[in-house]
Write a structure and sequence with these properties.
This protein is about 45% helix and about 15% strand. By secondary structure, the chain is an alpha/beta fold. The strands form two sheets. The chain has an eight-stranded parallel β-barrel, surrounded by eight helices. Helix 1 (about 30-45) links the parallel strand 1 (about 15-20) and strand 2 (about 50). Helix 1 crosses helix 2, helix 3 (about 95-105) runs parallel beside helix 6 (about 145-155) and helix 7 (about 190-200) runs parallel beside helix 9. The radius of gyration is 20 Å and the shape is globular. The two termini are about 15 Å apart. The mean pLDDT is about 90.
């Protein structure tokens, strides 16, 4: 944890995770524009990094292609690191990912993160299509995940690799004359990626915002089994958290309601749809059978007034011994909000930064 000038504990480094949510009043173009504005706010506030996720075929999520979004967001900002949280590697050939991120790093040197996940991030149909319609390709890709991680790292290295083809040695590089490489992070919500990251000497992020449990066990496993690498002699990790901040705790809970309802639908097999506006969510109260699930989510999430939210983020970082917390801003929007903006998400970041 960081200390302030008086020797006390200060707010940890803040970063942002963005799924590019699509509301009922938005098109994909509107959602992307709102995320561009959110990234610019984060950049102006001096936040550390801004990551976008990879999800497919979901009505409320426009983050289908991290490299495309990263290029757009990096071009719209000046200093914040931009990356993937994460690229779901079993969906893609390693060379394609290596080429994309090597080129992003060339265009925005020192600002690109490649966060890699093992989950498909999609339904079975989309997974099948992504892997070219081969029935076993997706499962094979998951089984080969450790090798795929190594392949991406090797191909992005300035030296690249040499392979024997037709009796001849041929060079293979993700991009010519690379001067730097993106930082690779492994992501996970179980202990699998914690073990792999520790064995490879890679930074690791546990999806605390999604799993909500098992965080301490995964981070302890990662730290206790970490094998130092040349690039990372010490283990490095941070946390993710769902956050909505408003002037009062009650208002913050109101802002978080559309996301709460979306997560209940996801976890109970309900109908997935574009994210409701706040008034729409209030007109469809959480079913009595799901009220305990909603309350459990809100207890894990940081949904509060600014000072209390700051204290809770600081306590979360101290509990898990991390210097950085990646905020997933889950505040919704009211009817009449300009479609290409997400003011409550932006205000969450401003209120947090104002208390640091």
């Amino acid at each position: 944890m960081r200390s302030d000038a008086a020797g006390g504990v200060s707010l940890p480094i803040l970063s942002v995770l963005d799924l590019v949510p699509v509301r009922t009043d938005q098109t994909s173009a509107d959602a992307v524009a709102a995320s561009r504005s959110l990234a610019q706010v984060a950049d102006g506030l001096g936040l550390h990094r801004y990551w976008v996720a990879e999800h497919h075929n979901m009505p409320a999520v426009a983050a289908t292609n991290p490299p495309v979004l990263i290029a757009m967001l990096a071009a719209a900002t000046t200093q914040i690191r931009v990356g993937s949280g994460g690229v779901m590697l079993p969906n893609h050939e390693p060379l394609v990912i290596a080429e994309q991120f090597a080129l992003l790093e060339a265009a925005f040197p020192g600002r690109i993160d490649l966060g890699i996940g093992r989950a498909p991030g999609t339904d079975m149909l989309t997974r099948y299509v992504l892997r070219g319609g081969a029935t076993t390709a997706a499962d094979d890709a998951v089984a080969q995940f450790p090798q795929y991680v190594s392949d991406v790292a090797t191909l992005m290295h300035p030296e690249g690799v040499e392979m024997s083809v037709g009796g001849r040695r041929e060079p293979l590089r993700a991009t010519p004359s690379a001067a730097s490489v993106p930082m690779i992070w492994l992501l996970g919500s179980s202990d699998y990626s914690a073990r792999l990251a520790a064995a490879r000497g890679l930074p690791y992020v546990f999806a605390h915002h999604f799993a909500g449990q098992g965080t301490a066990e995964a981070l302890n496993l990662y730290r206790s089994t970490y094998q130092p690498s040349e690039e990372h002699p010490e283990p490095r990790t941070f946390l993710t958290a769902n956050v909505a901040v408003a002037e009062t705790a009650d208002e913050a809970r109101r802002l978080a309601l559309p996301q709460v309802q979306a997560m209940i639908a996801l976890r109970t097999g309900g109908r997935l749809a574009a994210q409701r506006l706040i008034e729409e969510a209030e007109a469809h109260p959480v079913a009595a059978a799901h009220e305990s699930l909603a309350e459990a989510m809100l207890r894990r999430w940081i949904v509060d007034a600014p000072a209390a939210a700051r204290d809770r983020i600081t306590a979360l970082a101290a509990e898990f011994d991390v210097d950085e917390v990646m905020v997933h801003p889950v505040a919704g929007a009211f009817s009449g909000t300009p479609a290409q903006s997400a003011p409550a998400r932006e205000e969450t970041l401003r209120l947090l930064a104002a208390t640091s």
